[in-house]
Specification:
Structural class: alpha+beta
Shape: elongated
Strand content: 15-25%
Strand order of the largest sheet: 2-3-1-4
Order of helices and strands: HHHHEHEEHE
Length: 143
C-alpha cells in the first residue's frame, strides 16, 4: 500500500459516498487511477465494504449491551458465522480473560435486546453468557 492508497482510504474513511470524480480531484490523479486503485483495494481485502455510520441522533435511541460469551472452542467458527447473521450484533472480539468472545449488541428496545440475547444463547456451542447493559457514556474517544 503506497501513499496514494493511504490518501484514498483516508478520504473514504471521512466520507465513503465521495464520487470517483471528487476523489480524483482531491488526490490530483485521473478518475481511472482512482477506479483501478479502489478495485485493487477491494479485491485485496483492504476495503471490506462500504456502510452507513449512524450519527448521535440515530444511535441515541438504541439500547446497547456488552455480552460476554463462554463458548466451546471447537464451535467458535460456527458461532461466529451465526453471530454475523444477527444485525443487532455490531462487533465481536476475542478475549484473553474468563470469557471467549466479547460482543457489542444494539437493539431498539429492551424487548428486542432480550430477544437477541435469547437467540445468541441458543446458538449451539454457547456455554453461557453475561450481559452488561450500557447506561450512559462518560468518555468516548472513538469518534
Amino acid at each position: 500500500m503506497d501513499d496514494l492508497d493511504k490518501a484514498l482510504l483516508a478520504q473514504l474513511t471521512m466520507d465513503a459516498r465521495l464520487s470517483l470524480a471528487t476523489l480524483a480531484r482531491r488526490l490530483k490523479v485521473a478518475r481511472s487511477t482512482v477506479q483501478s486503485r479502489l478495485e485493487r483495494l477491494e479485491s485485496s481485502g483492504a476495503i471490506a465494504g462500504y456502510t452507513v455510520k449512524l450519527g448521535d441522533a440515530a444511535r441515541a435511541s438504541l439500547i446497547r449491551a456488552s455480552v460476554l460469551l463462554m463458548v466451546e472452542p471447537r464451535n467458535q467458527p460456527a458461532i461466529l458465522a451465526r453471530l454475523k447473521a444477527i444485525p443487532e450484533v455490531e462487533r465481536v472480539n476475542t478475549t484473553s480473560g474468563r470469557c471467549d468472545l466479547l460482543l457489542l449488541v444494539a437493539a431498539a428496545s429492551t424487548a428486542a435486546l432480550d430477544s437477541v440475547l435469547d437467540v445468541i444463547g441458543e446458538i449451539p456451542g454457547v456455554r453461557s453468557s453475561e450481559s452488561l447493559i450500557h447506561l450512559s457514556t462518560k468518555l468516548d474517544r472513538s469518534s
